[in-house]
Amino acid sequence: MPDRTDTRPPPRTELDELRASDRIFHALLDNAPILISTKDLQGNITMANRHFEILDGYNAATFVGSNVFELFPREIAEQLWRNDRIAALERRAIHEEESVYHRDKTLHTYMTVKFPLLDDEGQVYATCAVSTDITDAKAAQADSVTDELTGLKNRRYLNIRFSEEQKRARRDQRLLTLLLIDVDRFKEYNDSHGHPQGDQVLKAVADAMRQALSRPGDLSFRIGGDEFACLFASNSADESAALAEQIRADLAARLIPHQGNPPCGHVTLSLGLAFVAPDATLSQQEIYEQADQALYRAKHQGRNTVSR
Ligand SMILES: Nc1nc2c(ncn2[C@@H]2O[C@H](COP(=O)(O)OP(=O)(O)OP(=O)(O)O)[C@@H](O)[C@H]2O)c(=O)[nH]1
Predict the structure, then answer these.
(1) Residue 247 to residue 156: CA distance in whole angstroms
(2) DSSP states along 18-67
(3) Which residue ranges have their beta carbon within 6 Å of ligand 1?
(4) What is the per-residue pLDDT across 137-168, written as a single tens digit (0 to 9) for each?
(5) CATH, residue 54
(6) 135 and 184 share a domain?
(7) Confidence of residue 3 (pLDDT cuts 50, 70, 90)
(8) Is 238 a catalytic residue?
């Protein structure tokens, strides 16, 4: 006979505990603003949370059970599937950026972590993917290192990249070059042509830099008002100087009138080069000072010159 005087709730059974944790698990899946899915080892989706509704072409009736190769264009499916395979075969978590279209046709970048799911025997039977939308964060990061006027990277980004580029050049046994560029008598140009026209000159400088330094790995910056910098690897000082000369000649050939810049009367640049040999250890400050001294010499040699 049950004791009717005992008003305490009945003890929770293992099944009660399981149901409670299942409810929490499903609430999490349904409300998390991230993509969570699992795939079997053939690439068939076995579970996908509600947030998948945000994806272009998503169909709730067919998504679970479909294969990645049926759901996505071939090259996207191959990339997605490759990461699942690596996670399963190497039994480790893979972190990758992936791009997918949302229902509103905007392209979004996700940071995805994929990891293997193990059964009771410790065998991998599926992979799980958890993807977070990082589109806004990436845009904000890009804005914080980009010069608004010219679209070049800013000084902050030069500081971030310098040691990384130094390591890369050393590994490739190449010469790291820092090139500093300054518009000649730009104050006078602004004074006689106005600030908005001056801005057009700065954009033209950025354009000349982009024309000359278009190889992957070449980096161009606007580091101050009329000061620009390039950071790139080359095989010799002469090769670097030839690129600097190309920028100087390009801008001079645009013949932008500037009466206050004798003797030529058009906008010109002064450029200073400094190099770090693969076996040298120079700090960013030291190489910057060397390039700045070379720029100073270019100014004193009559401007419109490359100096090293
Ligand atoms: N139009 C424009 N001018 C800027 C901007 N930022 C800085 N400047 C101007 O750039 C000029 C830089 O001049 P200075 O550094 O004094 O040198 P300079 O006249 O170029 O003379 P040298 O370098 O000796 O040839 C200043 O007049 C600044 O006001 C900008 O974003 N747009």
Answers:
(1) 23
(2) HHHHHHHHHHHHHH-SSEEEEEETTSBEEEE-GGGGGBTT--TTTSTT-B
(3) 149, 182-188, 190, 195, 198-199, 202, 225-226, 299
(4) 998 888 889 999 999 999 999 988 898 899 89
(5) 3.30.450.20
(6) no
(7) low
(8) no
Out of 184, 188, 190, give the residue to mutate to test ligand 1, the one with the largest number of ligand atoms within 8 Å of its CB.
190
Answer yes or no: pTM beyond 0.95: no
Residue whose pair of structure tokens reads 């399981």 in the numeric block: 18
Judge if the upstream peptide bond of residue 216 is cis by omega within 30 degrees of 0. no
Amino acid at 183: V
Say how many domains are in the chain: 2
Return left, alpha or beta for 91; rule: phi > 0 is left, psi -120 to 50 is alpha, else beta: left
Residue 108 has pLDDT above 80, yes or no: yes
Residue 212 and residue 163 in one domain = yes
Tell me, yes or no, whether 107 and 213 share the same domain.
Answer: no
Residues 78 and 31 in one domain: yes
The torsion angles phi and psi of 220, rounded to 5 degrees, stand at -120, 140
User: Measuring from atom 30 of ligand 1, which residue has the nearest CA?
Assistant: 225
Measured in angstroms, how far is the CA atom of residue 248 from the centroid of ligand 1? 18
Look at ligand 1, atom 13, and give the residue with the nearest C-alpha: 187
| Res. 280 pLDDT band, cuts 50 70 90 | confident
Q: 247: domain range?
A: 145-307
